[in-house]
Amino acid sequence: MKQYIFILLALTLFSSNMYGQKVGGLILSRTKDIYYKWERNIERDLDLVFYNEDFCDYYLFCKVDNSHILLPGKNTIYTIDKDSEASNAFKYASQYVYFRGIFPKELKIDTPYALPVKNGEKTGWVVDQREPFRTMNFRVLEDTVYATRGGVACKTPSREHLLIYHADNTFAAYMYMSENFIREGDIVLTGQPIGIAGSRGIPISYFFLDKNKLLSENFMGYPYSHFTPVFRTTEGDVKLKEKTFYYAATDEELIMQDMDKHEKKKYLKQKSMK
């Protein structure tokens, strides 16, 4: 059993090292936050338990058996009855690996995002040539960066990077910041100040765990798809043209779009008290 888990971690570490500190390395870097234990439950059955100490979901992938979603916290994925003589279903070490994120159930590419600047201010973008995967480098030079969409802050290997997990299971990676205002596990709102950009702008990459890639017969080891969102501007919700300036229009509808009724009520109450 220990051999299986060791190989699983080694596979993930290998994938991470392939991409170094670029966006791919940021996505695949948190191996130490997922670990397992064999534990006896109250019925004295033997449970295989995975602990997820990150703040986003993970996907435990298996080619020949059921795959599993690892939510933050404790996840029991397999139980051997105390009286059973059944063999361990997790005995084929090389066939298991995990990835950050889960497959989005209802991915809507036209979901609007905010520009990473203060409401009413302008910015533009160019493709960040330092990154192997599609990354938008916004013109925010050594100034405050604002969250383009709300979510929870995941763990990252460096404070100069921020990874936010959205309600629809997509991610936004904010990179190379000179200062980060957000702590791991913080709930971040759309339009909230999150840090200070570096001298070369604020590179942001939007992505999700792609079921079609991971389950493909030709899977090459990187199961994420990167995309360019629609942004809310004074011109409406638009696909931004490269090297063109747009003004941010971060309104309450945009800020509250991923909130449930309780969260909206709390947000509006707090706003009225300011």
What would you say this structure looks like, in words?
The chain contains 5 helices and 22 strands. It has helices at residues 2-19, 23-27, 211-214, 252-255, 261-272; strands at residues 34-40, 46-52, 58-62, 68-70, 73-80, 96-100, 112-114, 122-123, 125-127, 136-138, 144-146, 151-153, 162-165, 170-174, 179-180, 187-188, 193-196, 202-209, 224-227, 230-233, 236-238, 246-247. Strands 9, 10, 12, 13, 14, 16, 18 and 19 form an 8-stranded antiparallel β-sheet that branches. A hairpin with a 5-residue loop joins strand 1 (34-40) and strand 2 (46-52). Mean pLDDT is 86; it is low at 1-21.
CATH class of the largest domain: Mainly Beta
Number of helices: 5
What does the average pLDDT come to?
Answer: 86
Termini, distance in Å? 56 Å
Unreliable spans: 1-21
In N-to-C order, the SSE pattern is HHEEEEEEEEEEEEEEEEEEHEEEEHH
Using only C-alpha atoms, the radius of gyration works out to: 21 Å
Quantity of strands, as a count: 22
**General form:** globular
Structural class: alpha+beta
Classify the beta-strand content into a percent band.
Answer: 25-35%
Number of domains: 2
Bin the helical content.
10-25%
CATH topology value of the largest domain: Glucose Permease (Domain IIA)
In the CATH hierarchy, the architecture of the largest domain is: Distorted Sandwich
Main β-sheet, in a few words? 8 strands, antiparallel
